[in-house]
Amino acid sequence: MSSFQIIVGSMLGGSEYVAEACEETLNNLGHEVTVHLLPEFSKISVKNQIWLICTSTHGAGDYPDNIQKFVTDLTSCNDDLSSLKFLTIGIGDSNYDTYCYAANNINNLLLSKNCKEIIKLKKYDMSKDIDPEEEAQLWITTNKDLL
């Protein structure tokens, strides 16, 4: 099975809950999973890994505090990341014009680094009556053949 690095960007904890639900589902599918609540770019494996980015957006479209340095380091990285596979989950509220802005930005950043997006960016709108943890688990299970 695959090895996943779940990289969490969260201010209020919602993305952490979604990440933990994803971890549970991926473990149940037989994958190896490491969750990074305080992600450090230099300490997260790239080779033979799948990165699952799970982030909310803060303020005026900003990254959550805990993931800002990770994004800065990723942005300045000159390493070959073309072997890295990834998928992104954005948590947000569509009532704001910056809806899932951080997820869009990191998804585009990874694409610009020639990383391979294995499943299209998934957004969860917290203005709707949904359980994002349950929705994320269903999303992973539905796409398990792509992982």
Task: Explain how this protein is built.
This protein has 147 residues and is α/β, with parallel strands linked by helices. It has one domain (3-146): Rossmann fold (3-Layer(aba) Sandwich), CATH 3.40.50. It has helices at 14-28, 65-76, 101-112, 132-142; strands spanning 3-9, 32-36, 50-56, 85-92, 116-117, 122-125. Strands 1, 2, 3, 4, 5 and 6 form a six-stranded parallel beta sheet that branches. Helix 1 links the parallel strand 1 (3-9) and strand 2. It is globular. The mean pLDDT is 95.
- Report low-confidence residues grouped into runs of 5 or more: none
The largest β sheet comes out as: 6 strands, parallel
Order of helices and strands: EHEEHEHEEH
Instruction: Look at the structure and give the mean pLDDT.
Output: 95
Strand content is 15-25%
Indicate the CATH topology.
Rossmann fold
- Oligomer status: single chain
Features:
single chain, 147 residues, alpha/beta, Rossmann fold, six-stranded parallel sheet, 4 helices, 6 strands
